[in-house]
Amino acid sequence: MAAPQDDMFSLCVDPTKVSSCVEVRFIDKIKGKGLFAKKAIKKGDTIFIERPLVSAQFLWNSLYKYKACEFCLRALETAEDNARRLSGIPDLSLPHPELCKVHPELHQACPQCQVMYCSNECRQAAADQYHRALCLGTSQEDPNHPISKLKDAWRSMHYPPETSSIMLMARMVATVKQAQDKGHWQKLFSQFCSRAANEEEEIAHKLLGEKFQGQLTVLRTLFTTALYDDHLNRWFTPEGFRSLFSLVGTNGQGIGTSSLSQWVHACDALALTSQQREQLDSFIDQLYKDVEKETGDFLNCEGSGLFLLQSACNHSCIPNAAASFPSNNFLLHLSALSDISPGEEIGISYLDCCQCDRSRHSRHKILRDNYLFICSCPKCVSQMDELDLTSDEEEEEEGEAEGDDMEDEMTDV
After folding, report:
1. Structure confidence by residue, pLDDT tens digits, 356-376
2. What contacts 159, CB < 8 A, 6 or more positions away?
3. For residue 351, what pLDDT is reported?
4. Contact 337, 18 (CB under 8 A)
5. Which residues contact 230 (CB under 8 A, 6 or more apart)?
6. Which InterPro entries does the record associate with it (predicted)?
7. pLDDT grade, residue 7 (50/70/90)?
8. DSSP tally for the chain: helices H, then strands E
9. In what order do the strands lie in the sheet with 54-57?
10. Are 310 and 52 in contact (CB under 8 A)?
């Protein structure tokens, strides 16, 4: 008998309630709200585990056959199948296959449209929350179905590397449409950070490019045709749709899952002799080289979700917490990177490790361009008087890279 999937519903924090060790507080009109510790938290502790209100796999990621549960985004390929596809080696065999935690025999399809779930629990949860309103039934492969047209339009406007999905907005609408207490869900969604009109336009510009005004109009028309609901009529007006678009662009948290990565982590925990460890590490190193050669950097099932608690975390260039997805599904684990005192704000980094190591000037440029704010964390304050010598070098490198890109484009033409 197969081992059961992780019980995500007993593990996760109820998204409508605040964890007992943290609280959300209003800070000021500039920073808005923040997340603060209510008691002492030790380095390495899991602060909370949170399930998103809604989540969705990125559309290009799904199209390129990264198979994920339609509800929880758990990777559906076995580690071996995943490794074979990513490496382009069809007869590849992984050692220790028993370490793979994917159980295909538990997977279930929607009886109407055949989209796949990792378990009956996820299939039922999706149907109860939003899927009945979005199920295409026998029209799943019909390119003229309004939802199919909406997906195609989004793909034509937002190319990889993907950072958001129109289907996150669609699931927000579908959730409210199916809910008995529609006001409850509308109140939950209203708790996410909102933006001024000019900032909303900047976010749309960032996601869609130079022609964002016309593209927003096209998307709103398709969105309205596919999903209009009287209870949410404001979301379908030009201003309301732009606000909804901005909400997802500002608050969407990236989610990545991988059965191969889970298998590798399980291998790391094996008790092996020195020779066995060396052989296994050598196999894994070669596998990743083969994957990089065949597939590049796109290794995971990827999507995004709206997390109520996590969205209250402000950025810090010296974060005391970090989010991860170790359960190979949409459950977000927020863990402490250092000891956190009662009353201390919990901050995460919106930048990657390399970006965090750049100069204050460069960090501010990235944050201003992508998140529309200027950081005033202790690290930035302490570096206010420092010369931006590193930034000059970085800007020079960026200029050279832009020149190379332009040269490549001219060559292509």
Report:
1. 888 888 888 888 877 778 888
2. 60
3. 84
4. no
5. none
6. SET_dom (IPR001214), SET_dom_sf (IPR046341), SMYD5_SET (IPR044422)
7. very low
8. 17, 12
9. 54-57, 301-306, 253-257
10. no
* Amino acid at site 281: D
CA gap 187, 184 in Å, rounded: 5
Structure letter (DSSP) for residue 68? B
Indicate the DSSP class of residue 335.
E
What count of Cα atoms within 13 Å lies in the side-chain half-sphere of residue 352?
2
Q: Are strands 314-315 and 347-348 parallel, antiparallel or unpaired?
A: parallel
**CB contact at 8 A, 349 and 341:** no
**Would the pLDDT of 412 be above 50?**
no
Q: Which of 78, 155, 129 is nearest to 305 (CA)?
A: 129
CB 393 within 8 A of CB 358: no
DSSP letters spanning 87-154: HT-TT---S-GGG----GGG-EE-TTT--EESSHHHHHHHIIIIIHHH--GGGTT-TTSHHHHHHHHH
**Distance in angstroms (rounded) separating the CA atoms of residues 219 and 166:** 9
Q: Which residue is listed with tokens 């994957």?
A: 291
Alpha helices, DSSP H, located in 179-258:
182-190, 197-208, 212-227, 238-251
**Residue 61, both tokens:** 């990621």
* Residue 326 near residue 264, CB atoms below 8 Å: no
Phi/psi-derived region of residue 3, left when phi > 0, alpha when psi is between -120 and 50, beta in every other case:
beta
Query: Which DSSP state fits 54?
Result: E
107-125 in b/e form (b: 16+ CB < 10 A) is: beebeebebbbbbebbbeb
Structure tokens at 36: 């603060």
Peptide bond into 161 cis (omega under 30): yes
* pTM of structure: 0.85
Torsion sign over Cα 358, 352, 308, 252? positive
Q: How far is residue 238's CA from residue 410's CA, in Å, rounded to a whole number?
A: 38
Sign of CA dihedral 120, 121, 122, 127: positive
Separation in Å, CA 174 to CA 153, 171, 265: 19, 5, 36
The full length of the chain comes to 413
| Tokens 């190591």, residue located | 357
